[in-house]
Amino acid sequence: MFSHLARFTAIGLVSLAVSGCIGGETMLPKVPSAPRAGLSNDPRLLIATTRLPVGDPIRKPWFSGERSPDFIYAEARLTPPDRSLVGRVTSSGWNIASVDSLSRTSAAQSFAQAALGRDLLLYIHGYRESFETAATSTIQLSEGIKFPGATGLFTWPSAGSTFSYVSDRESAMWSRDALEDLLTAIARSPSGGRIHIVAHSMGTLLTLETLRMLRGSGGESAMSRIGAVVLAAPDIDIDLFARSLERLGPDAKKITVISSTNDRALAVSSRLAGGIVRAGAADRERLEALGVRVADASEFGSGIVNHDLFLSNKEVEQVVKRAIERERM
């Protein structure tokens, strides 16, 4: 495997996927980070959720897998890793110290106000995720790419169970209106910041459906505030994916797909869907023909599942960073 990867690097494909060409287009040079606080200087995760809070007042694990009758905004106060010698041995990384500032009546507007004046990294998780695992992935992604703006999580009520695939899909679709309200509120705020969306697995279906709705309701003005849209291992019927891109029109060019033909989770999803290939497991050429940029991560997957390479592989993680830098120009 290592000799294969060395040969893969030597012929330049890594540089093409990560810092050169994605989908046949030359990417722009690396843009220096803007002098705005990331998580290291502002250890706060902005949360928009359709999950039901746990307890009153709220307590760990903070949000359940049940549906909330209200769309909720909250802030997670984070404790950064202990960088001391002892801390590096005993610390497990970032932790959620508390969740507060809950708003049930104006969640979208509260979130937009909290992100005012900054670019936003918004993560939308996939199937079988608890609030805490989704929050951990958001923090890991933001820190991994050293995102300089605000970091946010849109979390929908996944049951967090292997056997909840159908109910998770329905809960994701049930959350479309809330996500549209959030994106609309941020797009209408006077801030010049852009919204960079990274969605994973089943969360990519929710994202695409909502962007279609946003384009229909908010038009070019709303869509102009959307920056990069990175769809990691999209668990979407390839035909539905193609139709959604048609409806997005020119905004489809903002999309980067991280695909892998050996993603075993998507192979299972395909069988559940009657054998129709998922967009995240489609051949690169088929995806590029739809007009999106593609980072084929098949050669990087050496695990059993290969479904979260954008988090577990540093080279693939940098695809996200480059996509955002390109749309910040």
Topology:
Elements: H1 2-10, H2 13-18, E1 21-22, E2 25-26, E3 44-53, E4 63-79, H3 85-90, E5 95-103, H4 107-114, E6 120-124, H5 131-145, E7 150-155, H6 165-174, H7 176-188, E8 195-200, H8 202-223, E9 226-232, H9 238-248, E10 255-259, H10 264-272, H11 284-288, E11 293-296, H12 309-312, H13 314-327
Parallel strand pairs: 3-7, 6-7, 6-8, 8-9, 9-10, 10-11
Antiparallel strand pairs: 1-2, 3-4, 4-5
Helix pairs in contact: 4-7, 6-8, 7-8, 8-9
Protein described:
- The chain is of the alpha/beta class.
- The chain has a single domain, classed as Rossmann fold (3-Layer(aba) Sandwich).
- The chain contains 13 helices and eleven strands.
- The strands form two sheets. Strands 5-4-3-7-6-8-9-10-11 form a nine-stranded mixed beta sheet, with helices on both faces.
- Strand 1 and strand 2 form a beta hairpin.
- The chain starts with a helix and ends with a helix.
- The N terminus is likely disordered.
Helix count equals 13
Largest sheet: 9 strands, mixed
Give the strand line-up of the largest sheet. 5-4-3-7-6-8-9-10-11
The shape is globular
Strand residue content: 15-25%
Rg from Cα: 19 Å
Tell me the name of the CATH homologous superfamily: Alpha/Beta hydrolase fold, catalytic domain
Report the CATH topology name: Rossmann fold
Instruction: Please report the distance between the alpha carbons of the first and last residues.
Output: 37 Å
Helix percent reads 40-55%
Based on secondary structure, the structural category is alpha/beta
Please write the string of helix (H) and strand (E) elements.
HHEEEEHEHEHEHHEHEHEHHEHH
Whole-number mean pLDDT: 86
CATH architecture descriptor text: 3-Layer(aba) Sandwich
Counting DSSP E segments of at least 2 residues, the number of strands comes to: 11
The tally of domains stands at: 1
CATH secondary-structure class? Alpha Beta
Give the low-confidence spans: 1-35
